[in-house]
Design brief:
The protein is 0% helix and 52% strand. By secondary structure, the protein is an all-beta fold. It folds into 3 domains: 59 residues, SH3 type barrels, CATH 2.30.30.30; 61 residues, Nucleic acid-binding proteins (OB fold (Dihydrolipoamide Acetyltransferase, E2P)), CATH 2.40.50; 58 residues, Beta Barrel (OB fold (Dihydrolipoamide Acetyltransferase, E2P)). It has a 5-stranded antiparallel sheet, with no helix packed on it. A hairpin with a 5-residue loop joins β4 and β5.
Length: 189
């Protein structure tokens, strides 16, 4: 049995029959009352975000989750298809289960979260930062470097990322998949 003392960010718990990921948590202590533990939770199997409070030491119900390496294959009407890199077994998940589908490119390796109890996929996580090719970008104005001005650029997956003026078409850039922001320019590999 797990208690609120085992709470941590990223933990997946079952609340009222639904699965939630702990985004952030903390503890409130007052002089007279018992300590309380609060958590901000994001739905795994739904799109809700909730906040809950428990008494310190109260029982919570974590779900055993396995992270497996999968390779992105393609997208069709049924969803996004991935292949297990070890067993070559294929799964298809809906777009709502993929954390940043606009940055998926063919053959990319991702982590699929598998529910240890039911062996069903619960979500797909891309790496935090990925390298993408800029396929279209307006040329920057020469000498306009005094400010941190950004311009839109289209990358190989079709997504639009705001990049600095010095980034040109045909260059590789590193993008943060969690925020969708430009990180840096990458030298040719």
């Amino acid at each position: 049995m797990a208690t609120t003392a085992d709470m941590r960010s990223g933990l997946i718990i079952k609340v009222d029959g639904s699965l939630y990921t702990v985004i952030e948590f903390g503890q409130n202590k007052t002089a007279r009352a018992a300590a309380k533990v609060w958590a901000k939770l994001k739905g795994v199997d739904n799109s809700r975000t909730i906040e809950l409070t428990w008494n310190s030491g109260e029982v919570i119900f974590p779900v055993r989750v396995e992270k497996k390496a999968y390779q992105y294959l393609y997208k069709d009407d049924t969803g996004y298809s991935f292949m297990d890199v070890e067993t070559f077994e294929q799964i298809t998940v809906p777009e709502s289960m993929v954390d940043a589908p606009r940055f998926l490119k063919d053959g990319q390796e991702v982590s699929v979260l598998i529910n240890g109890d039911t062996d069903m996929p619960m979500g797909v996580e891309l790496p935090d930062k990925i390298v993408l090719l800029v396929t279209y970008s307006e040329p920057g104005m020469r000498g306009d470097t005094a400010t941190k001005t950004l311009k839109p650029a289209t990358v190989e997956t079709g997504a639009t990322v705001n990049v600095p003026l010095f980034v040109n078409e045909g260059e590789l850039i590193r993008v943060n998949t969690k925020t969708g922001d430009y990180v840096e320019r990458v030298k040719e590999q």
